[in-house]
Structures are given as structure tokens and as C-alpha cells.
Amino acid sequence: MAKTLYIFAGSVWAAAAELAVAELGYTDADIETKSVNLVQGENFAPAFLKLNPLGTLPTLEADGKVYTSTTAVVGALVKDAPTKVAAATAITETIHEDKYDPNFAMFAARNEAERAAKGNGIAGAFLAGRQGALEKYAADPEGAPFKAFYEAKLAQNGGGLAISNGTAPEEAKAGFFAMSTAHFAAIKAALYEILPGVLPASGFIGGATPGEDDFHVGAWLTRILLTCGAKSADDALAALAAAHGAPAPASVAAYWGAWTARPSWTKVYGSGLH
Ligand SMILES: N[C@@H](CCC(=O)N[C@@H](CS)C(=O)NCC(=O)O)C(=O)O
Ligand SMILES: *[C@@H]1O[C@H](CO)[C@@H](O)[C@H](O)[C@H]1NC(C)=O
């Protein structure tokens, strides 16, 4: 039965669902994809919040049900798939923990120089675009049922925007730099300690071909390498080594090679890492 998958080209977790679709033997007739522009805050539109009250991607509508988190979306795609793959293990839950959040990694800044660079880049544009959308929808009569959601998001995103655009008070910035430093250390531990504990010497966590865990871990790793400064599959391991001051563990390097050789990875990331 037809499914509708909501994605966005810049979204790390939507990419996990897109990798799953590409690997699982679905045809174009099985799944309709719709883009929700996160930079313009389309995920905050009342019509989208009616579908997914969290306002996040990926979101999947299938068989009269709505799946609103990445693990639920990928789980539903795996369950119904023409191609059967290995089921998720504990690493899927681990990689989704807040302390390893690949979205925060995009905004994190450990000092004033990093803050200024990111504030003037995609991260700053993203926060500003969202704030404008939240203001618009909060003032729209159709947004009335989501008033509490908009107020919380306006405060949270506005705080992030003030740090990003440099107008936040010094102590708020200092707190953000400390949080970012801790996040960078947690990501390093994931890359150099946790992943080597679960990645095979070759192939995927799910075996010779990607399994359910791999859709999550592959998308997470791609985003993290981007935040290390990678521009493509080819320069990513050097970027990782430079960012963290140590060569990539052998299993992480092999895993990156395995994923980037897949047509599915090229389909999802060919036009740019995200
Ligand atoms: N833990 C959630 C996170 C999903 C998430 O944060 N998705 C991002 C895109 S990668 C999003 O939709 N962000 C919009 C927002 O938070 O406003 C999940 O796995 O579903
Ligand atoms: C910076 O962010 C704050 C908080 O959202 C906002 O009120 C202000 O207009 C922004 N200033 C600039 C120069 O973008």
C-alpha cells in the first residue's frame, strides 16, 4: 500500500529514512516523498503539526498510521520492505541520545571564532528562517491550536538565534561554549570508543549489506563528518582526523568506505553531505 514520506534535503534524520528506502527494494510507486523545507520552517505549519505534533522529520504516513520519529519511521519501512534486513540493536537507541545529537553538532561553537563562523553560515540562516516562520504561524488563526508549541519554540529558537547572531548576553554565550565543548567530547567518544565496539572490520552492522542500525549510524556518521569540515566522501576521514587530533579508528574508516561505495549513499548524498 502507498506510503508518504516527508523529508528535506538538508536533514540528517530524514536521510536515514531515505537510505532505508533506497536499500529496501521499494519502487517509486510504493512511496511518495514530499519535501518540507526546514530552513523556511515549513515543519511548523499548522497543517504539518496536525500530522506530526512534534514538527520533525522524517515523518511517514502508511496504512492510516503516522510515524513521527526516525526510529519509528525506519522501523515501519523495514517491517514492510520487499528486501528483508537485520533488525535494529542497541546502537540505534544509543546514537539517537541527546548527547550525540548530530543537529546540535551543526550549531555547536566552542569559542567566539566558531560562533561567528557558524552564525554567518547555514546554521544562522536556518535559525533566522525558523524564527520568521514561527512568528508567522503563531499569528495565524489556523495556528491557534498550537499556541503553546509556538511559544516554547519561539523562546528556544530565539535563544539559539541570539547566540548565533551574537546579540546574546556574555554569560549565555559562555554557557553555550561550555555545552558545545562537552558535546564535541561526547561525539569524539562515540567515534573513537562506542562505534569501534559495534562496527565490524568490514561490511555493515547488519551484515554484508546495510541493516536497520546502519541506516541510523550511516546518516549520523555522514553528518558528523560534515561538521568536522568534510566536503565529500574522499576528504572526510582526513577532516575527522584533523578535527579530533587522531586518525579515524580502522573500523570507522572501513565503515565509511563501505557506505560511500553504496549507490544508495550516492543517491542520498551525491549533491552534498548533510
Ligand atoms: N529524535 C527525533 C529527532 C528528529 C529531528 O530532530 N529531525 C530534525 C531534522 S534532522 C527536524 O525535523 N528538526 C526540526 C525541528 O526540530 O524543528 C527523531 O529521531 O525523530
Ligand atoms: C538576533 O537574534 C535576536 C533573538 O532572536 C533577534 O531579536 C534579533 O533581531 C537578531 N538580530 C540580528 C541583528 O539578526
UniProtKB/TrEMBL annotation:
UniProt keywords (A-Z) are: Signal
Tell me where the signal peptide lies: 1-22
Statement: the UniProt record of this protein carries the keyword Signal: yes
Q: What residues does the GST N-terminal domain cover?
A: 1-103
Q: Which InterPro entries match?
A: Glutathione_S-Trfase_N, Thioredoxin-like_sf
User: Which protein is depicted?
Assistant: GST N-terminal domain-containing protein
In its UniProt entry, the species of origin is given as: Mycena rosella
